[in-house]
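Support request, please re-run this one:
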Amino acid sequence: MVVPTETPEPIEHGNARAIATELEVGASVAGAVDYEDDVDYFRFTAQAGQLYQIDVALDTLDDSYLELRDADDWYLADNDDFGDSLASRIVWAAPESGDVYVVVSAGWESGTGTGSYTLTVALSDIADDHGNSFGDATGIQVGQASAGAVDYEGDVDYFRFTAQAGQLYQIDVALDTLDDSYLELRDADDWYLADNDDFGDSLASRIVWAAPESGDVYVVVSAGWGSGTGTGSYTLTVALSDIADDHGNSFGDATGIQVGQASAGAVDYEGDVDYFRFTAQAGQLYQIDVALDTLDDSYLGLLRDADDWYLAGNDDFGDSLASRIVWAAPESGDVYVVVSAGWESGTGSYTLTVALSDIVDDHGNSFGDATGIQVGQASAGAVDYEGDVDYFRFTVQAGQLYQIDVALDTLDDSYLELRRDADDWELAYNDDFGDSLASRIVWAAPESGDVYVVVSGFDGEGSYTLTVTLSDIVDDHGNYTGSATGIQVGQATAGAVDYEGDVDYFRFTAQADQIYQIDVALDTLDDSYLELRRDADDWYLADNDDFGDSLASRIVWTAPESGDVYVVVSGFDGEGSYTLTITVQ
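Re-run finished. Output below.
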């Protein structure tokens, strides 16, 4: 590793990629966390295939946190504490050439949250035995063993083998000096296929996996959570499995079943999933049951089609570890039932039954069959079975503030959602309102049109009453970028969280390279949450919950460019007044 001969004097460093400090590989730079939540950005040019060691040495800073990000601000690696110290180190192999960004901030154990440090980026002298990405994966043969090692903390080893459609493979990591392994299986698009941490009673890893199609797949080996040093050697083996699997593991080889008939099945190995297919009719209500035989615990999923769209799921039904789904079909067509082992089980047999349900459902379960309701009128409803959701539709007027209430009858606990349209975009939600298990949403409509109220229950069935009314609350500031209150830098603005879920939007014009301090001072509001967003697309820039020892909020932010930005103030656990101030540092 290249060791620099001298350390320069501390300098200021930018808080964003656009103003990152240029750093040469092999050199050191002094820096400081100058205020609570300060982050320092540095940039260096990586070369494909090179292994880099990035170190933060602590000076007056008590604890550091180190991140590595690419040119799109995508996470690459991070480290809080390295070895026995509170300093930080990342060892990282560059998959391609280009600029990468090092981000230094204070770690969790930093007393004051500020202090100086020294950052070094150097070429590592570690010899890495296997590649760290798809592009440099080691090719291996089925049936042959391959030696490997986790050579440094954070090292991952990629291997590639060619799978044949329909074959069942057993992939094993045997531990040598490595204390604990973690094993993943991924396809050529980096899509997750399977994983395993600890197999049986050991810290070694095993995946048994059925290939749905032929082609290259990737095995990724790294250190598990129980690995003492995080490094060590292992042996990897990929072999054909001799397990006989009774039902297919994917859409393409799902077992066709008939409504009203029982089907026997078994979870044949750890990680086995059994796919079944039946044809649903629009508007019918189906009951899908897994009865346990030698399987101790089941998990049941319902999927729509080969796009793997989730429809419903159940682990434990009633007082048992068996599973049941009651589901209303919104349209006709094939759907897929997926049976696997639950949390309390490994392998064993079961019986699957799909039948028509005799439950009468009072309100529709989707946008297409939502019950139309009027503002100001009460509507009776019931959660008729576990997993039942009731959809209601009403028309809103732009700028109006609405109060939506679920009053509990025999239902013990309600959950309430507000959604925009058939794209199922969530607008607001509430579980428990005040000291009760009932639900309330107060919501300001940004535009006119139909919206959807969705009522469901926690832990059981029962009746309720839904009411939508115009609210008599006076909201002091807008809830969206389009209705944001314009404010001036240097002037204080009074505001209030007027109801649970209220957010106040403010807009000010930032100047490039200026450092702004944004403060929320608490009046009757007990706890504030503060966000900074970039533009009308509501792009996140920064946030803060609690500043210092208080429940007030502060953001210190350097503007990378000139233009309007938005400050969003909300509260935790209640309503109340506050004062917002923006100043230039």
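Residues 532 and 542 are 5 Å apart (CA to CA). The first strand starts at residue 21 and ends at 22.
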